[in-house]
TrEMBL record:
Belongs to the bacterial AtpI family. The chain crosses the membrane at residues 52-73, 79-97. It comes from the Bacteria. It comes from Sphingomonas qomolangmaensis. Signal peptide: none annotated. This is ATP synthase protein I.
Length: 105
């Protein structure tokens, strides 16, 4: 007979605990911002690596393509290709250094 009788109702979630959790999360966030210890977002390193790769490949391909096109129309054979390829590589490395020196958020 005791099996059919309902037991005591479960206690409802206390609003004070929810409020405390929210305030604690807010305080942790503010403290990490204040102390400069913000955690990097997930996947930030992956995105940064892709950007560095795109800068490197884009600089080389762009310089080579523009140099080859100018060589084709001006008849200067490999000289503009080589010069603009070198400039593309220098530009790519300059951008990579600029990216690596940027402070993370």
């Amino acid at each position: 007979m005791a099996e059919n009788e309902p037991g005591p109702d479960p206690l409802p979630e206390d609003a004070r605990l929810d409020s405390l959790d929210e305030r604690l999360a807010r305080a942790k966030t503010q403290e990490s911002i204040r102390s400069g210890e913000t955690r990097a977002q997930d996947g930030e390193g992956y995105r940064l690596g892709n950007r560095v790769l795109a800068e490197l490949v884009g600089g080389m391909v762009g310089g080579a393509l523009i140099g080859w096109t100018l060589d084709y129309f001006l008849g200067t054979s490999p000289w503009l290709l080589l010069v603009l390829l070198a400039l593309g590589i220098v530009s790519a490395f300059r951008n990579i250094i600029r990216i690596s020196n940027r402070r993370s958020k």
